[in-house]
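Revision sheet: structure tokens.
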Amino acid sequence: MKKLLYLISALILFLSPFLGEINLSLKNIFDSSSMSYTIFWDLRIPRVILAFFVGGILALGGLIFQIVFKNQLITPYTLGIASGTTLFTALAIVFFPFINMSISAIFGSILTIMILYFISKNMNNGSIAVSTNSILLTGIALSYFYASALMLVFYMSNLQENYSIVRFTLGSLDTVGYANSLIIFIVSVVFYLIINFYKKDIKLLLISNDTAFLKGLNVNKLNIILLVTISLCVGVSISFVGPIGFIGLVIPHIVKLIYKKSADKLFFPVFFYGGIFLVTSDLIARNLNTDSVLPIGVVTAFIGAPFFVYLLVKRKN
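Predicted:
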């Protein structure tokens, strides 16, 4: 089963650059003077790389968030981090065009996670362990606040700025060349190495925060490191592709169902299948024969939203 999934995933990665709205001439993809060469090497290959590593970051970030907050329904998106990065990116577009969108997105994500972190500490007398839905509801409330503020920014923006914000919020993997893909690749590698470095400590968190504390682990310090790291990486990702939801919720749960192992042993599968999920979603978006490419966030929402409802029903039962 697992080998078959890896084989199918490898096939998707291999075929994805060849499939799209424009049919490529296979014999011309190595001819630098042909249109097929430009489309294949300058547009589709960077797009697949960008999709794979963004998907990996979002999926692994979701898994770590679920471990830290002890809640299987929590992701950087359900906690309002995506809303925070979207709002601050919109503010940069309208009021501070001289500020790089990546900087504003990262600031929004860190500000949001720090607000949630300190709220969770106050709820639990200095501990970030959350065994109820309180922190989830706080994140949802914060998302509504950000959404209201975003509507105000829409109202104050001109037509061109309005269009830029809308396009950003729908999510897009459009990229030309390898600059953006290279940045995301570096961010994802650093992110994975940091998470893997704290693998043993994260394993203790899976047991309980009290057990980790008795083993000599500084739980609050580790949580801050993990949350800030995820927020930075998710913020960078969102600044390039927009808010693409549900990956951090769907993929960790599916991988757990397939592998049936402890979460500390699933870092690579979650990262890998998160990338495959986003590449597959993008492949669907690019091959629907519509007048324009369907925003990638729409595809992931169509898949992820029903799964989220399923998890809620299953959790209640």
